[in-house]
Structures are given as structure tokens and as C-alpha cells.
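Q: Here's a chain of 113 amino acids. Please give me its 3D structure as C-alpha cells.
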Amino acid sequence: MANTGAKLKAIYHEGEQQIAPVPVMDLKDATATATEETLLSTGGTFLASGAVWLGVERLVTEGWADQLFGICIVAVVAGFILSFVGHRQRARRVNRLMRYCPKEDPPEEPQVA
């Protein structure tokens, strides 16, 4: 029974990585708000695009006096507001996590041997 089973060959590479301590609560908040911002942004975009499509169709077939066209205008505004809130929430989450990242250090000068 030679050469049976799995073989593992470990290869190690050198590397450097900057790490920053982040509180667990900030990570939990970031993952929770990521879902909310995605739902707000996609829901708002879907609402606005559907309302624009229906509004153009109603405008062409029925004209300006159609009540459904007025509702479409309100839905477009609501969709844009939802999308804006989602994008704003994303920016707030990213800014909150970026405060743990160190500022860019100036590049090191090469050492002459």
C-alpha cells in the first residue's frame, strides 16, 4: 500500500503586512450595516428605474394629467432618496473603519550597501 493517502507539502513565503487592531463591535456594526446599505441602494434603484419606465409609458399614452404619472414622479423621488441613504450609509461605514488604518507613510529610501 505504498503512495496512498494525501500528501501535503508546505511552502512558506516571506511577506510583510501592516495590521491594525479593530474593536469587535466595529466589525459587527460594519457587517450589519453592509446588508442594510445594500438593501437600501438596490431597493431605491429598483423603485426609481421602474417608476421612470412606467412614468414614461404613462406620459406617452395618457399625458400629463394622468394620476399614475404623478405617483411615478413621487416613486422616482423616493427611490433616489433610498439610494442616497444607502450610499451615504456605506460612506459612513467605510470612514468609520478607515480611522483604524494608518495614514500613508512616505516611501522608504533605498539603503545603499
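Q: Can you summarize the key feature?
A: The chain is about 60% helix and 0% strand.
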